[in-house]
């Protein structure tokens, strides 16, 4: 597995990975209506490019993109997804290690994330603690997630 910085040419593959992961992995913890609202079939590539470029985005690849994670300058981990066929294989841990290294280089002392029900056990295993459970709205549907943080 190779870990590298995001390139614009990765965008469509990242969007597909995001969509597939939400619809095939997160569906175990959310309803069909919720995952449809979370990961719409009609995503705007230009919006994704702008968003991915605006953060410290790292991509894991092994013949294809198998995961990605985004770090913002304030320590927020935004999107963080592993390919549906590469769950529980250490990919997320490697991406998170890279995000932590970047955060330390930026003198960020605390990371925080809004983890899905599905992702919560992963982040707990990486020493994140739950600050609070919350309900967010995506395209008119309410979803539960967890604000979690970790001092680094």
Give a description of the structure:
The protein has 152 residues and is of the alpha+beta class. It is 34% helix and 34% strand. The protein has 5 helices and 7 strands, in the order βαααβββαβαββ. It has helices at residues 11-24, 32-38, 45-53, 91-105, 120-125; strands at residues 2-5, 56-61, 65-71, 76-82, 110-116, 129-138, 141-151. It has a 7-stranded mixed β-sheet with strand order 1-2-3-4-5-7-6. Strand 3 (65-71) and strand 4 form a beta hairpin. The chain is globular. It starts with a strand and ends with a strand.
**Number of helical segments?**
5
> What distance lies between the first and last C-alpha atoms, to the nearest angstrom?
25 Å
> Structural class, from secondary structure content?
alpha+beta
Task: List unreliable stretches of 5+ residues.
Answer: none
Mean pLDDT: 96
Strand order of the largest sheet: 1-2-3-4-5-7-6
Radius of gyration: 15 Å
Largest sheet: 7 strands, mixed
Shape field: globular
Report the strand count: 7
Helix content: 25-40%
- Helix-strand topology string: EHHHEEEHEHEE
Strand content: 25-35%
A few lines on this structure:
This protein is of the alpha+beta class. It has five helices and seven strands.
How is the secondary structure organized here?
Elements: E1 2-5, H1 11-24, H2 32-38, H3 45-53, E2 56-61, E3 65-71, E4 76-82, H4 91-105, E5 110-116, H5 120-125, E6 129-138, E7 141-151
Parallel strand pairs: 4-5
Antiparallel strand pairs: 1-2, 2-3, 3-4, 5-7, 6-7
């Amino acid at each position: 597995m190779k870990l590298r910085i995001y390139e614009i040419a990765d965008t469509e593959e990242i969007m597909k990975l995001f969509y597939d992961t939400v619809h095939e992995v997160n569906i175990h913890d959310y309803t069909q209506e919720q995952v449809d609202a979370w990961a719409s079939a009609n995503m705007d590539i230009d919006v994704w490019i702008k968003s991915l470029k605006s953060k410290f985005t790292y991509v894991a690849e092994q013949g294809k993109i198998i995961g990605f994670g985004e770090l913002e300058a304030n320590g927020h981990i935004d999107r963080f997804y592993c390919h549906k066929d590469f769950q529980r294989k250490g990919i997320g841990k490697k991406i998170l290690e890279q995000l932590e290294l970047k955060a330390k280089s930026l003198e960020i002392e605390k990371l925080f994330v809004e983890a899905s029900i599905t992702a919560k056990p992963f982040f707990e295993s990486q020493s994140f603690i739950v600050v609070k459970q919350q309900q967010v709205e995506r395209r008119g549907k309410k979803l539960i997630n967890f604000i979690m943080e970790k001092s680094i």
